[in-house]
UniProtKB/TrEMBL annotation:
<protein>
    <submittedName>
        <fullName>Patatin-like phospholipase family protein</fullName>
    </submittedName>
</protein>
<dbReference type="InterPro" id="IPR016035">
    <property type="entry name" value="Acyl_Trfase/lysoPLipase"/>
</dbReference>
<feature type="short sequence motif" description="DGA/G">
    <location>
        <begin position="63"/>
        <end position="65"/>
    </location>
</feature>
<dbReference type="Pfam" id="PF01734">
    <property type="entry name" value="Patatin"/>
</dbReference>
<dbReference type="InterPro" id="IPR002641">
    <property type="entry name" value="PNPLA_dom"/>
</dbReference>
<keyword id="KW-0443">Lipid metabolism</keyword>
<feature type="domain" description="PNPLA">
    <location>
        <begin position="1"/>
        <end position="76"/>
    </location>
</feature>
Length: 105
């Protein structure tokens, strides 16, 4: 699992847990709930997460959508552990929904 957050103090995007070494931390030092809270801290709606690294530097962490709203590029690797691949480059489907009742069928 990769969680995206924005470190607004340093102006950098965070990919957790991959970027923990920048803060001299390991995945064991970060709770999943804290990472999710960082990623969901929308500006003006929720307070930023004030995160102290092991060297006592403080960073304000906000929603990852500030810097990357749809980070599908994370899974674009040669040997992915989990991903999906399209069989065709282009898929043409002509979906016809005659009535709203057909949505429930």
């Amino acid at each position: 699992m990769k969680i995206i957050a924005s470190d607004v103090s340093n102006g950098q995007m965070l990919i957790l847990p991959d970027d923990l070494d920048r803060y001299r931390m390991t995945p064991a030092d970060l709770k999943v709930s804290t990472a999710v809270m960082m990623s969901a801290s929308l500006p003006f709606f929720f307070r930023p997460v004030i995160w102290k690294s092991k060297d006592r530097n403080e960073s304000y962490i906000l929603d990852g959508g500030l810097l990357s709203n749809f980070p599908i590029w994370i899974f674009d690797t040669d040997n992915p552990r989990f991903s999906f691949h399209f069989v065709k480059d282009e898929v043409k489907i002509d979906a016809v929904i005659p009535t709203p009742i057909h949505l429930c069928i």
